[in-house]
Structure of Large ribosomal subunit protein uL24:
Amino acid sequence: MRIKKGDKVQVITGAYKGTIGEVKQAFPREDKVIVEGVNIVKKHQKPTQQNPDGGIIEKEAKIHVSNVMLYDEKAKAPSRIRYEIRTNKEGKKEKVRIFKKSGTEVK
């Protein structure tokens, strides 16, 4: 999965199409992510000791990773990514994600 926690993504299909948000959590085994402000669902909470009133809360639900793309700040558009293997200052090789549109490194 090419999308990680903390990445800025744009929803490309569905009811939230065009929405830009940050990935809160990634689930690589399920190929799903939770994006801030996207796929809001209402959940009924039973009363507990921490929340004696219970009630209905709104929270973000998982969305399939194929419905989002990494958002490129420089190009101001969603972009695919490519990988490049570079050597860092210590001489170790590291895999780096790079936007295809602008050629900048994914932060």
In short: The beta strands are 8-11, 20-27, 32-35, 40-45, 55-60, 63-64, 68-72, 77-78, 81-87, 93-99. The radius of gyration is 18 Å.
